Amino acid sequence: MAKMVLSDGEWRIMNLLWADAPRRVPELTEALAKDTGWSRATVNMMLQRLEDKGAVRMETFGRNKAYWPVLSQSDARQKETKRFLDRLYGGSLGMMVSSLAGQQALSEEDIRALRAILEDAEQQEK
Q1: Which of 40, 49, 98, 104 has the most CB atoms lying inside 10 A of its own CB?
Q2: Distances (CA, A) of 45 to 37, 42, 50, 88, 124
Q3: What is the CA radius of gyration of the chain?
Q4: CB neighbours of 71 closer than 8 A, spacing ≥ 6?
Q5: For the chain, how many helices (H) and strands (E)?
Q6: CA atoms within 13 A of residue 60's CA, in its CB half-sphere
Q7: 3-state class of 35 per DSSP?
Q8: In what order do the strands lie in the sheet with 23-24?
């Protein structure tokens, strides 16, 4: 699970499972249909890929399959954030923040939140 990478579609399914599990295929298909147009077969294929990766587990109840997340949302976010930083900024959080600030993509609220995060990190190091 250490090198697990989720596709955009897999993230969609995982977000639904993190919000409310277990979920059955018909429920997931209905929840995804409007935004994705995915068929039941597509949802089944995506769930099988997630199961193969170890991100979800499945149990059969009669003719119904129910899915639960195995991968936690916080672990997935941490891995994806690290992957993003490594890929785009050579692992440098500072370079990313500098890039965002240079594009004026940070609001005053964002800047206050970043200051609070940095002050907390500084206190933890002391």
Answers
A1: 49
A2: 14, 5, 9, 30, 44
A3: 19
A4: 1, 4, 14, 54, 55, 56
A5: 6, 3
A6: 2
A7: helix
A8: 23-24, 64-69, 56-61
Residues with Cβ < 8 Å from 28, sequence gap 6 or more?
13, 16, 43, 47, 67
pTM of the model: 0.82
Residue 70's SS3 state is: coil
Say how far apart CA 56 and CA 32 lie, in whole Å.
17
Residues 6+ apart with CB under 8 A from 99: 89
| pLDDT, the chain, mean | 92
pLDDT tens digits for range 99-121: 888 887 788 898 899 899 989 98
Name 59's bridge partners: 66
22 CB-contact burial (10 Å; exposed 0-12 / middle 13-18 / buried 19+): middle
Residue appearing with tokens 């002050």? 119
Our measurement of the distance from residue 27's CA atom to the centroid of its chain's CA atoms, rounded to an integer in Å, reads 20
Query: Above 50 in pLDDT, residue 7?
Result: yes
